[in-house]
Amino acid sequence: MNTPLGIFEQMQAAIQNMQQGMLELRQEVTELKAALPEYVDEQEAQRLTGASGKTLYRERQNPSSLIVWKKDRGVRYLRSSLLLYNERHTIRRQPATLTHT
Predict the structure, then answer these.
(1) Which of the residues 50, 58, 81, 93 could staple to 68 if both were Cys, CB 3.0 to 4.6 A apart?
(2) pLDDT tens across 31-87, in order?
């Protein structure tokens, strides 16, 4: 029969195992991110942003665009700039506030 102390020790060991697993996963993610190409092609840019080719073209024409691109065997987009573009263009629901005038 398990005593409360025995159950506590089992839970503590399980938590430590989970923490170690999370550290290993974090390391794997870091390694995978480092392996990703810095610049991506048009098709991958569309996939990452959900934007059409026409929208990406308009962004390239916009001098204040967040998207960084270059001409290199076609148009290439900086992956980090696409992710930032996505973050800034995501519509977030704000909590409703009741004001009475």
Answers:
(1) 81
(2) 887 777 889 999 999 999 999 999 999 999 999 988 999 998 889 999 999 999 988
Least confident of 3-12, 64-73, 86-95: 86-95
Q: Do 49 and 90 form a contact (C-beta atoms < 8 A)? A: no
The count of other CB atoms within 10 Å of the CB of residue 41 is 15
Q: Rounded to an integer, what distance in angstroms lies between the CA atom of residue 29 and that of residue 23?
A: 10
Q: For position 99, what pLDDT does the model report?
A: 67
- Cα separation of 44 and 58, whole Å? 17
* Nearest C-alpha neighbor of 44 from the set 20, 69, 19: 69
Beta bridge partners of 40: 77
What size, in residues, is the chain? 101
Among residues 93, 92, 85, 91, the alpha carbon closest in space to that of 55 is found at 85
